[in-house]
Design a protein that fits this description.
Layout (H helix, E strand, L loop, with lengths): L1 H5 L1 E9 L2 E6 L9 E4 L2 E4 L6 E6 L2 E16 L5 E15 L5 E3 L10 E4 L2 H12 L4 E5 L6 E3 L2 H6 L2 E4 L6 H15 L5 E5 L5 E3 L5 E3 L6 E5 H4 L8 H8 L7 H23 L14 H12 L2 E2 L4 E2 L7 H12 L4 H4 L10 H8 L9 E5 L8 H17 L9 E5 L15 H13 L5 E7 L7 H5 L3 E4 L5 H10 L2 H4 L12 E6 L6 E5 L13 H7 L6 H10 L4
Helix pairs in contact: 7-8, 8-9, 12-13
Length: 552
């Protein structure tokens, strides 16, 4: 620690369980308190920088998160200003110059506060640098490149949080680009809600923010996610309105019909046992007819109604409307995947083992109707989970599922229309890592995201957040001593993030590398559009697209 001992910048004046305050020494309380450490010049005690508090054998590393001045007057009435900094202790440096997270030995007021240079930062991050998984530069030391621990980041779930326009897509793209670079056998599945990471051009070519040879683009509409691979809970979400007074009757009857149809198929394909969730083919038309027959049953030449007469009116209307809606064709009218044998091919395509080997599978959900996206998302998540659950080589073949705009289908509210989807994703969050399946959630509204989902995340990449509710929520997610750090969330620039949790050795403010290539931004340029936009539009074409539910 020789370097930092040479530059004393302050003395502790207050020590609390969750932080400390220090007074900057007079020589560094000037209008431009520049100090030189090694090759670099920094401002003494500036926000986001690190300091070492030293007293006898104690060496505590802390982060500066606040600075202020207080006036005092001498007996003659002359005014002097004292400058103070608020510090968040993040760990200790032991006698072998190794960084240990957490503080066991607190200094007392009067302890010396020293500036920290690159050598000390190297000592702190050295173990993490070995992974060579770099994601950006430290905000306080631009020459320093930050490497995270990929085992902690991907193995224990992570969240990327930040408001719209803070650079979430940029961060996700950059993170994946550097993941593929650091770990060439990466297996990622991404739910792309807006077609930002992979998209089709007007002439039908697929362009991507990732290397073409490493990415597998899947348009959810072409993919065919056959209904027969859905669980009973997901089919209930799709066809039954839980608020309908006859919902429990409909659910019980559906369970019975599914068992019956699946037993018939199991016999044909030579499967001995079958459960209600076994992913084998059954005919949706046949299920509909069974409901219809029971709903219209009459006895005694039409004089007496059957036991279930008129019970399924709501169900039949809902199912018919889903079936007639062209937006649901990829789910309810599979052309390619209409036999039990077609499942293996679908899974191969999913995990990047199909005709084209790929590290990342981007499932483009931009053309899928909003109200069915949750069902598709749950289906993708469940396929990944079940695939590795039954995969004997799951330890060598871990998969991470990246959930864009996760609050849209893993909501906080209970008993909503997406309950089945939410339960599936929460199940992956709670049990997935035992089977080599982890989740990366990306959201602009953490307060609307499932608490269970976020509680399972061990690392957070927090971008600019100005909403006070979201700030308070993020503050509650991180350890108490680091909670005050979230005060800087409003001042972060585009693509700048606060990395908290197990993947980084200590809370770190970092400028994420600019992705190359960049994702396709969905921000509409009003200025150019309103200055140089078209004078005429083909409204007939718009009407036709609306009616046929086809978008570009």
């Amino acid at each position: 620690m020789a370097q930092s001992e040479q530059i004393l910048i302050g003395h502790l004046v207050e020590v609390r369980g969750d932080g400390m305050d220090a007074r900057i020494v007079a020589e560094h309380s000037t209008s431009a308190p520049l100090i030189r450490i090694g090759e670099q010049e920094i401002l003494a005690g500036h926000l986001g920088s690190y300091v070492v508090i030293q007293q006898t054998q104690i060496k505590v590393l802390a982060l500066v998160y606040k600075m202020w001045e207080r006036d005092r007057f001498d007996q003659q009435g002359n005014r002097y200003s004292d400058r103070f900094i608020a510090l968040i202790p993040v760990g200790e440096i032991n006698e072998t110059n190794t960084f240990i997270r957490g503080v066991r030995h607190y200094p007392t007021p009067g302890a010396n506060v020293f500036a920290v240079g690159l050598d000390e930062i190297n000592a702190i991050f050295s173990k993490f640098r070995d992974y060579q998984f770099f994601i950006g530069q430290l905000a306080s030391h631009k020459d320093y490149h930050l490497s995270l621990d990929p085992r902690a980041l991907f193995g224990r779930h992570f969240a990327i949080l930040g408001q719209s326009g803070s650079g979430k897509s940029w961060t996700v793209t950059s993170l994946i680009q550097h993941t593929i670079k650091a770990m060439p056998k990466t297996h990622l599945i991404m739910l792309d809600l807006h077609g930002e990471y992979c998209w089709k051009t007007a002439d039908g070519r697929v362009e991507s923010a990732f290397p073409t040879e490493r990415v597998n683009y899947v348009d959810a509409m072409d993919l065919e996610m056959p209904y027969w691979m859905m669980t009973y809970a997901e089919l209930v979400d799709l066809f039954i309105d839980r608020d309908d007074k006859g919902a429990s009757m409909q659910m019980a009857f559906m369970r019975e019909i599914l068992q019956q149809l699946k037993r018939k198929e199991a016999k044909q394909i030579g499967l001995s046992g079958v459960s209600i969730d076994t992913p084998i083919y059954f005919s949706l038309a046949e299920m509909y007819m069974q409901f219809k027959t029971a709903n219209e049953e009459r006895k005694d030449f039409g004089k007496t109604h059957g036991a279930l007469f008129g019970q399924f009116d709501e169900f039949l209307v809902r199912m018919q409307s889903r079936f007639n809606d062209v937006r649901y064709d990829f789910l309810l009218k599979p052309k390619k995947r209409n036999t039990s044998d077609s499942m293996a091919d679908l899974l191969r395509q999913f995990v990047g083992l199909g005709d084209k080997k790929a590290n990342i599978t981007v499932v483009d959900l931009s053309s899928v109707p909003t109200d069915v996206r949750p069902a598709v998302s749950a289906q993708v998540g469940r396929l990944a989970y079940e695939f590795n659950y039954w995969n004997p080589h799951r330890r060598e073949f871990p998969i991470t599922l990246i959930c864009e705009e996760a609050h849209a289908y893993i909501p906080r509210e209970k008993g909503g229309p997406f309950e089945g989807t939410k339960k599936m994703m929460e199940r992956i969050a709670k049990e997935g890592r035992k089977y080599g399946v982890s989740i990366g959630v990306v959201s602009q509204r953490p307060t609307e995201l499932s608490e269970t989902m976020l509680a399972q995340c061990s690392s957070f990449i927090c971008l600019r957040t100005t909403n006070p509710d979201d700030q308070a929520y993020i503050r509650g997610l991180v350890p108490e001593a680091e909670g005050d750090l979230t005060d800087i969330l409003t001042s972060l620039g585009r693509g700048e993030a606060l990395v908290l949790g197990e993947a980084a050795p200590l809370p770190t403010r970092v400028q994420i590398y600019r992705p190359n290539p960049e994702p396709k931004s969905n921000d509409v340029d009003y200025y150019t559009g309103w200055r140089e936009g078209p004078d005429e539009l083909d409204v007939d074409d718009i009407v036709n697209r609306w009616r046929t539910q086809t978008r570009q």
